[in-house]
Amino acid sequence: MVNFFKIRGSYGTTGNENVNPQYVGIITGGPSYGPTANSNGYSFGEVFTTGSTIGSAANNALRWEKQVQSNIGFDLTFMNNHFTINADYFNKTVDGLLFTPSASLYLGTVPIPQANIGTTKSSGFDVTLNYHNSPNKKVQFNSSLTFTTATNEVTSTNSDGTAKILGGYYFNGQSQSVTVFEKGFTPGYFYGFKTNGLFQNAAEVAASPKQVGAQAGDIKYVDMNGDNVIDALDKTKIGDPFAKFTLGWNVNVQVGNFDFVSFVYASVGNDIYRAFERNANYTNKPREILARWTGENSTNDARFPRYSFVDNNNNARVSDRYVEDGSFVKIKNLQFGYSLPASLTKKGLNKVRFYFQVKNAYTFTKYTGYDPEIPGGILETGVDRGAYPQPRTFALGLDIKF
Amino acid sequence: MNIIMKNYLKLLFLIVTFCSLESCTKFVDYNPHEEFKITDQDYLKSESDYRSMVVSVYTPLQWINQVVPIGEIASDNAVAGGENASDVLSLQQIDDYTHNAVNGQLTEIWQSAYEGINRANYINQYKAANPAGDVVNFAGKDALFGETLFLRGYYYFTLVKMFGDVPLFTDKRLSLSDSKSLKRTAKAEVYKQIETDLIAAIAALPAVQNEKGRITKLAAQALLGKVYLYQNKFDLAASTLESVITSNSFTLVNNFGTIFLLSGENGSESVFEIQYSNTSPYYNWGGATRGQGNYAIQQCGIRGINGSADMPYAAGWSTNLPTANLANAYEAGDQRKAVTILDIEAYKTANPSYNVTYQVAPYKNTGLYNQKYLPRKGQTSGQIELNYLNNFRIIRYSDVLLMAAEANVKAATVNETKAKTYLNLVRRRAFGNNSRDITSSGATLYNDILNERRLELAMEGDRFFDLVRTGKASATLGSKFVVGKHELFPIPQTEIDISGIPQNAGY
Description:
Shape of chain B: globular
Strand content of chain A: over 45%
Oligomer: heterodimer
Structural class of chain B: mainly alpha
């Protein structure tokens, strides 16, 4: 039964010093086109006079980022080498994560130097099941399924553990921030107001916790701290951009001169924040707007409040009305090939193969945006600013090997 | 034996590896001089370094540009206008009194004012000795530092009148390790610091500066008078403003309209102007107010205005539109009305030769425009929207006269005669003669003075703050103004979230 069995374990630590050199620098000359437009100079009368000012800062507490990764797992091959299992439990901590921190605005406009913002820990399982069969010389079948699940958590931030690093900035008339890096939470979790349907009538507005500007048809926000007032203190976790688990499925078949390759990827349980929506005049709206609140009891769906550009209730604030389940299954690659028999290939050509390929063939998802697969790093994960979707490409190809 | 040796070697290797890992705590030494960078240690070595750095303490004055439109839009003088209800949301919400702590313009003002304070602090920190520890002395050094004290006072005054209690620091430029370390300081303490700075500035500054727009002693006195007035310290305000008046350094410009032309900039009535120019074109939309141009000019322009070559105005975005309420507040014969407000239809009819065409303001149209600061042809450069040269007239002599009048009416020793003299100087200029002199007294006189402030200074950014400090905001603005809340603007939400300081009441 068992053809091969191995238990593995590893422990490794690596450092990262991938930051720009830091020093307290002086800039001169005048206008700035830098990230904070930290210009200098002034006009006396109509005469422009250049100036000088501090243009960069150093963080004396800066140190290396340290990653410690350990894993323990096993490799098992059984049933006449047809099946292989590679299973791992992994644990990775990043200590002194290098990132540009959020700093108090009263520090001014000198760009904030990168710092060690905190420690994150991610741990989970990674299991790959591989099946291989080759009943005869002409047929090869290979398939593997990879399952990964991990939990991610911020275990410390630099100061007393109350530091919040803000990110996921987007503009919907005002500049908003949706993600937060904070101790005890997933790095870059979504932070905003929880909604609880819509106000159906004025009596309901009056009976609810005080919410400035609210009227019938507006979103009802949840009074998280129970002080009977809806304000910034009621902001809470409204979503988690990390998947509960992901799956990758590879199939590789070869029958005679024909071959077939496919790759399917699935992500389950990741939230997406629709940061591309803007309550602006003269712009297209999603068709769901047709189901909006139009009168008492027309709908209680907080995603579709009454439609008005004068937003006294601030329905456009960061809230879970913009959060969606971003789970998806994506057929990422399909490829059919045919190789000319060796007898047909002329002298000097080793192999001639024609193939037809479809990339991003289809996505199964309930996500209403363009593409649930959103690129992003720390504090950017799951924030959909209307990123250009991955294109579906069809390709016809010819491989010639000499 | 061999196996044991091998294991020892492995162990040794591990130990060496671990030790080398431990030593990774420090970065590779980097010397910015190898890349020809100037560091703080290399700077402030000469008089010109000091002077150059002081110039940049002025720079954020230009960035707090939106304080002026906000001071009008939040009041009964102007509406936000714009293209539609979702355009210029930051100003729109302030106009509608639905503004909240997420407001781009308020954040910009907050952060810019603090950059100014940090710049002033940095240079003051190295007044006695530069970062390398050397003493650099030169003629006029104290006067130069007087400018930085005025500017720090002005930045704090902007913050305190908008946000109330704000973090106060004067010892140094803050660095990353100071983030999240400050609390809000009581308004009274902040005002005390502003007074200290301005008094020191007055002692150090000359009465006249060679360069236009440089801070003078008189500008510092006028600002101090205003700061006293904002605290209802009327006696001090009266005596401080009196010294500006008796210096005889300023005269009212006869023709009110010319004050706001290019030729009228830094004129005989100008006490303090925030300077802008079009000589250093700026192209950065990512920092629209961070160049040398005045962004508020483009904002208030008439949409799509077109006409003959001699028609003076250039097109803009129809924001910050004067209200009919303001237009109606002027009496017949007041030359300030036409200077303050452009009634576009009346203008079109009165000047058929200009062939004026324009787009009616698409939102909150009043048909009226902010004539004092309308964009004019040929007064911008580069990215035209960002580079209008118009200075903001922050303190004019007429403002000083009206403040002095108000202070004299409210002072412990009331001097109504003096108050009326100053008030009527302003009115005589407005009407061209003394036929409209104010003769009232008591509360009526006080209200006449406040009304005169509105008419004289309309669209110059004072109205909302005047209404609040005189306690007349609620009565004037109606129920949309919530007493106990709207006297102040909200602290930017980003600052609340990062720095953990409390928000103003009601937001």
